[in-house]
Amino acid sequence: MTGVDIVYDKIHFGHDQKWSGRLGPAEGSGQLVCVACVVEMIESEDIASVRKSFALSGISGVLKCSPGALRDLLSQDHRVSVRFTASLLGMLHTVVDQATLEKVDQVLVQLLLELQSELSYRLVLEEIHKQLNDQLNMKSFLPTFTFLGNLVEAVPNVAQSLVTQYVPLLEQLCSALLYPDEALKASVLHVWLKLFGTAGGLAAQSLPPAIRDRVCVLLLQTLANAGSNQLINTCVDLLWLLLQIQEAVSVLMSLPGDLIPYHENQNLRTNNEQNLSQNQEQQSPDQSPLPLILKKLLMSGDETLQTTSAKCIAAVLVHSPSQCSPPFITADVPEFLFDRLAGSSSSGLLWSAYSCLLLLTYNPLFFSQCHSVYGIESLVRSLNEALLLTNLDVPIQGLLLLTEILERQPPSERLFPGASGFAAVAEAVSAGVSFSCLKVATQAASAASALFRLNHQSRPVLYGKIEGLIEAITKRFPELPLPSHPHRGISRNLTRSGKDSQASRAEGFLLQALICFQAACRLAEECASEPVLKENTFTAPSKQSQSQDSLESLCKCLLHCCDSVWIPTVIKMCQEAPHAQILQQFYSILTYQFTLVPSLIPVFTNKL
């Protein structure tokens, strides 16, 4: 080779000039390329690897800078194109240098994209199939599998052809996962990852069900015993794609536990190994191993794996919460999800864990095994972190989870054994109500409504915390963008323009605030009817009426807020755009005021 020209002087003189061309951005410039020289250099065992790599770099540059030029040279004789492609495929088995292998992979993909020939694609797939049939050393196929995955990603048509016309090759890809080398397994899974992920998963829809089911089994076997980070991450990425397919979820969740040998490995060991092994011993042979495998990933020290594991759990539960929740709850997965909440400030992990736990709360087993009692402290701690994040969807999801737990917790199982637990939740909800975003504040107000249930109150009842929450909600009213008289028509249109409009969010917050206020009034009435709740037994009787943490103080706060802020706000809103739900809650609240503080009712009545 001379200069930057891609020719080999020792053999170039014997080649027909039609296989040479000066390929570049303009006529008369660029590199002199001899396809025949390149092919012979590739195939020769006497040519140094560095020289082959240099030639491949030149070809790669031509393919990138002069689209169509190399294709025109090769189109003169199809046999040369076939030989060039076959020679490059052969290099994937003969070259040892990693940098050169990467260059071969790159040039092969570029070349096939340049040729845009179904014949070339079939040649590659058939040649790989033939090589696998004749293979003597499976480990030498690692570069070939890596290339095949890259080709499938770059050319979606190859993925479609592979799943519809080359089922024997797919079976060979499955069998390759039984080979003990982890690097080879990772390269094979790379192919499956691209097959299931390319073009939005369209190719996967054409995959024969028997092959898909076999991939599910082999994937769980591989993941259960994976030791290297590369293999673990590739397995988890493929698992995530499979869990988007209903049929694959059914297979994965129905596999018997004794089908998957489950061994410890160095990379995923944690301080919770003893608990994990105990759960494995308790697992019935007919139960799916998937919950335990995903729990193992939750226990790892890798936050990315923890996040992906939580996403996978949510993907399973979404398909069939009623059928899939019990195995995860029985495996104590909620416990480890709550543990992840307590120790993370990652928006991705928090969101994923919230989503999983939210789906699990729909099953009564979640509460009967006391997961909510165990995890409430971690949930509160995570909410305080979530409110500091820029991604507002995270605190909304966390507050939604808190709301569901508060609403679904059985009255017979106390969520807050002591006053400190209730106080911590009340403070977190108050922070949410005071948050600048109305969507977050609205969900926090919904959580407050559930918190005001009688069965959640501590002994003694923390009336001061309840009062603080009501005052926090009331302070939001002056900033609400309520309708104004000069723009009556415009305001009405704005209010009804859509749920994402500012006025619509304000209306939603007001409605939820009224529901919360009504819940506080109902709680006050219920406490007044029970002497043990009406008075704080730790406060001297002579100081009960002056205490800031008394039922009487709460009732006066409710009446004052209703009189000074809530009534004017609701009237102003409904004058412009009457809202049946808002008015219904409003009248109910007014009714409560006549019973909460009887001594002040004459003054309140006259004012009304």
From TrEMBL:
GO terms for biological process: meiosis I. This is Meiosis inhibitor protein 1-like. It comes from the Eukaryota. InterPro entries: ARM-type_fold, Immune_Signaling-Apoptosis_Reg. SUPFAM superfamilies: ARM repeat.
